[in-house]
Design brief:
about 140 residues, alpha+beta, Hypothetical upf0131 protein ytfp, 5-stranded mixed β-barrel, 4 helices, about 30% helix, globular
């Protein structure tokens, strides 16, 4: 698949551009049947399957193999890339890829729903200076 649903730090286009090395076309979307939780002691979230759940996010279009490689390094061992169903603003559903939190790491998620606005106001700068995956990509 060529498209990626993002629901956390990669919703910030400056972070996505830094990670991928390019500007990508994007569209707002909802991820169906998932919920988003804050990772313990971090600024970023993980999503897990949840009946009836909805997560706001952004779909980036036209991901190349080189960009997938960079994204895989950025996301690290706690996430796996898998197909999910999203709903676009025009009502259309689509299958895209998403980095989902691995079940074996579920205990590292809090019970707190992650909020993008809180990240923008309080967590983004901390994330950009602390997150090892982000530093690895910037130095590559």
């Amino acid at each position: 698949m060529q498209n990626l649903f993002t629901y956390g730090s990669l919703m910030c286009q400056d972070i996505m551009s830094a990670v991928t090395g390019r500007q990508l076309c994007h569209s707002p979307a909802l991820l169906l049947q998932y919920r988003r939780f804050l990772v313990k002691n971090e600024q970023y979230p993980g999503v897990v399957p949840s009946d009836g759940g909805l997560v706001n996010g952004i779909v980036y279009h036209g991901i190349s193999p080189k960009v997938w490689s960079r994204l895989d390094r950025f996301e690290g061992e706690k996430y796996f890339r898998c197909p999910v169903t999203v709903l676009y603003e025009n009502g259309a559903e689509a299958q895209v890829c998403c980095y989902v939190f691995k079940p074996e790491f579920r205990q590292q998620l809090t019970d707190e729903e992650w909020k993008f606005e809180t990240f923008l106001h309080h967590g983004k700068k901390i994330f950009q200076t602390r997150y090892a995956g982000f530093k690895e990509i910037l130095c590559a």
